[in-house]
Amino acid sequence: MFSGIVETMARVVAIEHDHTNIHFTLTCPFADELKVDQSVAHNGVCLTVVRLDPQAKTYVVTVMQESLNRSNLGQLKVGDMVNVERSMLMNGRLDGHIVQGHVDQTARCVEARETDGSWYYRFEYESTPEMIRRGYFCVDKGSVTINGVSLTVCEPDVRGDKGYVSVCIIPYTHENTNFCRIEVGTMVNLEFDIIGKYLSRLAELTH
What we know:
Blueprint: E1 8-18, E2 21-27, E3 39-42, E4 45-53, E5 58-63, H1 65-70, E6 81-86, E7 105-115, E8 118-126, H2 129-133, E9 143-146, E10 149-152, E11 154-159, E12 162-169, H3 171-176, E13 187-192, H4 194-205
Antiparallel strand pairs: 1-2, 1-6, 2-5, 3-4, 3-6, 4-5, 7-8, 7-13, 8-12, 9-10, 9-13, 11-12
């Protein structure tokens, strides 16, 4: 479980394809603190550390096909930066919202602009009646996770088979996450609010 409060960014230093899986080697400031079997969210995707190289200060995670299908991790190249967050400590404050690290789908940036010191982004994603019944939608002032960052929803909308969500980013978040590299056309990972998913499923079962 995560909070959506990104700790830092990790840089991809090597990529190895293994059948349908991909092994990513990354480095980040807390790489030497990690342990094998530890969970770390990468652009919002919960991945397990499978190998460490303390001398190089790198670690390896494996991404399976299901995660590749639902996320932007398959598009990563050597040198790319990803948002990383270690699992939440249960004896601390929940500064973001409850994030599982189970990305639901990708979205495409359709607008990105600076607004008096902050940043405004609008994203477009696939939306069908079935997906909405499963809780894959946003509500105004609700929570959504984009590339692992817990954000407040504004201007949610559905038009035909497309859903839309906008978020506003403060300068600190823009500078300390890979939002600083997001532009029109960039694909990002979406995780919708787990509470909304449970309520949607309950409504479906009771009607």
